[in-house]
Design a protein that fits this description.
The chain is an alpha/beta fold. The protein contains 16 helices and 15 strands. The chain folds into two domains: about 150 residues, D-Maltodextrin-Binding Protein, domain 2 (3-Layer(aba) Sandwich), CATH 3.40.190.10; about 200 residues, D-Maltodextrin-Binding Protein, domain 2. The longest helix is centred in the last third of the chain and has 16 residues. It starts with a strand and ends with a strand.
């Protein structure tokens, strides 16, 4: 038995604070043809002083790609910081009296619902919503217009095939498989105090089993946990790099890492799994409200939504016209829980679940 310590948030990748550089005069001259591209998508070139401050929840590579593409298409300067969904929610709460953020991109719908309920978001209905899938429009309606769905993803069980052979455990394919004693100290999942991914996992298990039974299950699962990571993407990276045997995570990076030659494999729990609708919202009192709306409209186009797959992030895009990709999961072929975004996006419900998790699970020592 290894060291015993209280379960805590384990830092993963450092936050990426990024200012997308302004174009030089020579590059600007080269871009004289670019406004035709931007106008084709309904966006006029920016005035010199226009900018946007964005907090972004997906992986840094995707955040950087959309920031650069938006600036390229519109000329609007993007100041962006990458943080987990739970961290973003905490930050915008702390800035409520003096908002420094204009747009919040990504993170589960539930976290945006909480922010909207607490008066932190500006309602907005983009004209481009008409071409989105019903699930993306539904969260806009349920949130009172405070956020819109931009993508979806499914929680899966990813394991390292080489470690499985070496240590003698089987590929987990159900939630029950995860609590098998052979996986003691081999499982990672994110910490719900910082990660909206973790909240999606826990809320899904609650909806699958019932709350008390779900917490009984999470206590059993805790025996096999070696770390609760700060971000939702960290467990996936750890599995790919052979640092842990199993991750509970979204599907986004799995095809990319397999293509890179990492010995990993993923399964969606056969007895049902949770999924997210990731959202986008505008802050109440945004300093750059007009440019925030421009970004909102810009992202709700096929061209912007194709960016994620182009960099190996295989989210299900919200726009019906996005380019099909075989690495994007078919939601109709996976058994999904009947996820109640409105209930689990309630501030009171979220607070109670997080407090219960911390008291009953997070406070337990981790055995390594």
């Amino acid at each position: 038995m290894g060291l015993r310590r209280s379960a805590s948030v384990t830092p993963s990748a450092s936050e990426a604070h990024i200012t997308v550089p302004s174009f030089s005069k020579s590059r600007l001259a080269f871009r004289l043809g670019l406004p035709l591209v931007a106008l084709a998508f309904g966006f006029a070139p920016a005035r010199a002083e226009e900018q946007i401050n964005m907090l972004c929840a997906p992986v840094a590579q995707w955040c950087e790609a959309i920031a650069a593409a938006f600036q390229k298409d519109t000329g609007i300067k993007v100041n962006m910081a990458r943080k987990s969904g739970g961290e973003i929610l905490a930050q915008i709460k702390s800035e409520a009296q003096n908002p420094k953020t204009d747009v919040w991109f990504g993170g589960s719908a539930e976290t945006h619902f909480v922010a909207g309920e607490q008066g932190l978001l500006e309602p907005y209905a983009s004209p481009n919503m008409k071409d989105l899938h019903p699930w993306a429009v539904k969260v806009h309606s349920q949130s009172g217009g405070h956020c819109v769905g931009v993508s979806s993803g499914v929680i899966g069980l990813v394991h390292n095939t080489e470690l499985a052979k070496k240590k003698g455990f089987k590929a987990p394919k159900t939630w029950d498989d995860l609590i098998d004693p052979s996986l003691k100290g081999e499982v990672q999942m994110p910490n719900p105090n910082s990660s909206s991914t973790a909240y999606t996992i826990i809320a899904g298990i609650i909806q699958l089993l019932g709350e008390d039974a779900a917490f009984d299950y999470l206590k059993k699962l805790h025996t096999n946990i070696n770390s609760y990571t700060r971000s939702g993407s960290a467990p996936q990276r750890a599995v790919s790099q052979g640092e842990t045997g199993v991750a509970i995570t979204f599907n986004f990076d799995v095809p990319t890492d397999i293509a890179k030659g990492f010995p990993i494999e993923a399964h969606y729990p056969a007895n049902g799994t949770s999924y997210e609708v990731a959202c986008m919202s505008i802050m109440k009192g945004a300093r750059n409200l007009a440019t925030a709306k421009k970004f909102y409209d810009w992202y709700l186009t096929p061209r912007a939504m194709d960016i994620s797959a182009s960099i190996g992030q295989f989210h299900v895009p919200a726009h019906k016209g996005a380019t099909p990709n075989p690495n994007i999961p078919n939601l109709t072929a996976i058994k999904l829980v009947d996820y109640d975004f409105k209930k689990f996006g309630s501030a009171d419900v979220r607070k109670r679940i997080l407090e219960r998790w911390q008291n009953e699970i997070g406070a337990l020592p981790i055995n390594r």
